[in-house]
Design goal:
The complex is a heterodimer. Chain A is α/β, with parallel strands linked by helices. In chain A, 32% of the residues lie in helices and 30% in strands. In chain A, the strands form three sheets. Chain A has a seven-stranded mixed β-sheet, with helices on both faces. In chain A, a hairpin with a 6-residue loop joins strand 3 and strand 4. In chain A, helix 3 packs parallel to helix 4 and helix 5 packs parallel to helix 6. The longest helix of chain A has 19 residues. Chain A starts with a strand and ends with a helix. Chain B is globular and about 70 Å long. The chains are: A alpha/beta, B alpha/beta. Chains A and B meet through helix 1, strand 6, strand 13, helix 8 and helix 9 of A and strand 5 and helix 16 of B.
């Protein structure tokens, strides 16, 4: 169990891992996540399940190197085992036929968006997907998205691929062009904040999948709490998806930065250790 | 019940016990003074994780055991939720047969080293001791003697593994590896069932591991007790959430015939006051889990934790005491308890309050937070408190705190730990639509056998009680094990 059977580099900093986890593969639905822990001294981090193969009994996780744990994960090889994986956790995405669904994925947020795009497509919706990232290298899963989308619009900040501009530019282009019945936004909190502000302007019901800090992931600790419509919710058991127009993104942004200094320091120490080890 | 009384009489009339009783006059026993539990120096212990109570020496234990009168009607046993044969184990200590004392504990208690440390004996066995009830004297130190016997056995390196009945091949699933689940597992394995314990976290032990700090209950002791259950044949499966990883229906298809839900009180309560979601404000569950389970305060572990200088813990229960004393040990200059009633109404054990006071914890009683403030980065730096006075007793029988208008004042703080209770974990009820639950989300069970509205599902501990003690959870686990045994015997007879 938890053995890695395939590793693929999607970009310099983004890695796709296919992991043996037959029980989770069987139970997971779009929107679910797992908690992963590496080694005896590792921390517990949440990662959304990108896809699963029930026959093979595997799940796919996509990780961007941003800190100690994600960097350690990116160094794993075929045959390695992940010490602990638990899930599937959270509430599954509510999938129904609503008409046209606009899906916006920012950076590595594209990974959790993929199963939702797939499910929305299979439910008979017209799906338009906007993929956005800083540059061409960070655009991931474009081919997979095209398989389940009626249209894919690629946006890069620097114009190195697709159109130059932000995710909101691509979204607004669609909204102005045709009737959108629902929007889904997944990516960095700041990207979700602005795409949510945009769809609110046009009164389009919007879901955002929040990437809060968690410890246990089962509702026990409350580290992931977020204000939604003025009430405190736990992302791990009440979410991870919420009505984006009710989410207090500024609070989410602040809480995501809660351990920033410690995380930065730990990552620098880790990277120095890696450098020493290779010299 | 008749059987138990007969059994106790029979045990009491054993020759060695009769001789031991005769060896000393009752008066010579009752005039002895209770031996005090030795403690680490408060200044030293507040800097480290060493256990506060250092444990009885052999001499102290034997001396204290002599106080026990070996009563013909041992009322102490009725005060024990897991019905330990208390006079028997204490008399074995007096006889200096510590091995048999430990075995006696294990007849009914899967976790004696744990219970000897964290049980509130003062309101249970020791409260129903003949000394307390009839002589109006300090009771026999039953809890400290229990700890002594369990520790002696563990340190002897020769742990007794209780005998188990031959396997009957019937699979039973225990959901959650906290105190109720471990107690249920211990009894069911003895009866010959094939027992699997499913744990959501990456290590078994539940609140014994993530909640209770090292200085009250070292994790190593919990591990030894879990290891004993493994040796008896109990299977532990970590990283498995029943209701998510697999449902009860799935497990039934895999051959499990009965279930015990001991999934605990998951969700921490918050007060819903302005600013409560600032960084540096967290539940005691989060704080203690980071420190106890994830070892966040140790340099070489990956999980981070805030090390506050001015730490405010909101609440007056044992968990609040655990949190504030942990903060002190992690270097807080000021570690405060903020509680809305007076010290007399605090739900924490007197021993915990006393230890906290000795360690320099400040108590801001009759105070309640009403708002938090933060710096530019969104980290808490100040809290507004309101003073309270006590009014008439409320439903809990404690005097109700009433806010004093205009008494608000601010204090500096950089870490706030909210310890105002927990709500039941909704994962099991959510996955079982047919299950009867109370309006608080606790599972409704038959009080004697702990059976829920779904016949094959039994439950106990905080998921039933909402928030109680380790020993009450263990009592539930034992009752449920008996209930499951009865249910499966009837079912498989048909």
């Amino acid at each position: 169990m938890n053995r890695i059977i395939a590793v693929e580099n999607l970009s310099e900093s983004v890695i796709k891992l296919e992991i043996e986890a037959p029980r989770i593969a069987k139970k997971r639905k779009a929107g679910h996540f797992v908690i992963v822990k590496l080694g005896l001294k590792g921390e517990r981090i949440p990662l959304t399940i990108s896809s699963a193969n029930v026959e093979k009994g595997t799940i796919t996780l996509i990780i961007q190197k941003v800190g100690v744990t994600s960097h350690k994960m990116a160094l794993l090889k075929v045959g390695d085992k992940i010490t602990d994986i638990v899930g599937p956790l959270g509430q599954a995405t509510h999938i129904e036929k609503v008409g046209t669904v606009l899906c916006a994925g920012g950076g590595v947020g594209t990974a959790p968006l993929l199963p939702i795009v797939e499910a929305m497509h299979k439910a008979g919706n017209r799906v338009i997907t906007v993929l956005a990232a800083r540059n061409k290298d960070l655009i991931i899963l474009e081919k997979e998205m095209r398989a389940f989308s009626d249209e894919v619009i690629v946006m890069t900040d620097d114009g190195s691929y697709g159109k130059q501009g932000l995710v909101t530019h691509g979204m607004e282009e669609v909204i102005k062009r045709e009737k959108v019945d629902k929007a889904i936004t997944i990516g960095p909190a700041i990207m979700m904040k602005f795409s949510s502000m945009l769809t609110k302007k046009y009164n389009i019901p919007t879901e955002a999948s929040l990437n809060a800090i968690m410890v246990d992931g089962t509702g026990m600790c409350g580290a992931c709490r977020v204000s939604v419509g003025g009430a405190t919710k736990f992302v791990c058991v009440d979410g991870p998806e919420f009505n984006a127009h009710e989410v207090n993104f500024d609070e989410l942004l602040s809480r995501l930065g809660g351990f920033k200094e410690q995380e930065y320091k730990a990552y620098q120490t880790y990277l120095e250790g890696l450098k020493k080890a290779t010299v | 019940m008749e059987n138990i009384i007969d059994y106790l009489k029979q045990e009491r009339s054993q020759e060695w016990r009769t001789e031991l009783r005769k060896s000393m006059k009752s008066k010579d026993r009752t005039t002895r003074v209770r031996i005090q539990m030795p403690e680490e120096n408060p200044v030293e212990r507040a800097k480290s994780n060493i256990e506060v109570n250092t444990g009885f020496s052999v001499q102290m234990a034997v001396e204290e055991a002599r106080r026990c009168l070996d009563c013909p009607d041992p009322t102490c046993i009725q005060g024990c939720p897991v019905n330990i044969n208390i006079p028997k184990f204490i008399k074995y200590i007096e006889k200096q047969d510590f091995k048999m004392a430990a075995r006696t504990l294990k007849e009914t208690n899967a976790l004696p080293a744990v219970c000897g440390r964290v049980c509130p004996q003062e309101i249970q066995c020791e409260n129903s001791c003949f000394y307390t009830q009839k002589l109006k004297k300090t009771p026999v130190a039953i809890g400290n003697l229990e700890r002594f016997a369990a520790d002696w056995e563990r340190n002897s390196g020769d742990m007794y593994i209780p005998e188990v009945a031959p396997s009957n091949g019937i699979k039973v699933a225990i959901i959650g590896s906290g105190p109720s689940g471990l107690a249920a597992a211990g009894d069911l394995i003895k009866l010959g069932y094939s027992v699997s314990v499913f744990e959501a976290l990456h290590e078994p032990g539940g609140v014994l591991k993530y909640g209770i700090p090292e200085f009250r209950l070292p994790n190593e002791i919990v591990d030894v007790e879990i290891d004993n259950l493994k040796k008896m044949g109990v299977e532990f499966i970590n990283n498995f959430i029943v209701g998510k990883t697999a449902t009860i229906e799935d497990l039934k298809e895999e051959g499990y015939q009965a279930f015990f839900a001991g999934s605990g009180a998951g969700l921490p309560n918050f007060m819903n006051i302005p600013g409560e979601n600032y960084n540096g404000i967290m539940s005691s569950n989060e704080y203690l889990t980071r420190v106890n389970l994830m070892n966040a305060a140790k340099e070489d572990y990956d999980t981070p934790v805030f090390l506050g200088k001015n730490v405010a813990v909101i609440g007056g229960g044992n968990t609040a005491m655990d949190s504030v004393r942990t903060a002190k040990r992690l270097g807080a200059d000021k570690a405060m308890i903020i509680y809305r009633r007076s010290i007399e109404e605090m739900p924490a054990r007197n021993e915990e309050i006393k230890h906290a006071q000795e360690e320099g914890i400040e108590f801001l009683n009759l105070n309640s937070p009403i708002e938090y403030f933060a710096d530019k980065k969104g980290h808490v730096n100040k809290m507004r408190l309101q003073k309270m006075e006590l009014g008439e007793p409320d439903a809990s029988g404690r005097r109700r705190p009433i806010p004093i208008e205009g008494s608000e004042y601010d204090i500096e703080t950089d870490l706030v730990i909210v310890s105002v209770g927990v709500s039941p974990n909704p994962l099991i009820p959510q996955s079982l639509p047919g299950l009867n639950v109370s309006r608080w989300g606790t599972i409704i069970v038959d009080e004697n056998e702990m059976q829920s509205s779904i016949p094959e599902l039994f439950a106990g501990g905080d998921i039933v009680r909402g928030g109680a003690t380790v020993i009450l959870a263990m009592g539930d686990g034992r009752n449920a094990a008996a209930g499951i045994h009865k249910y499966l015997q009837n079912k498989n007879k048909k």
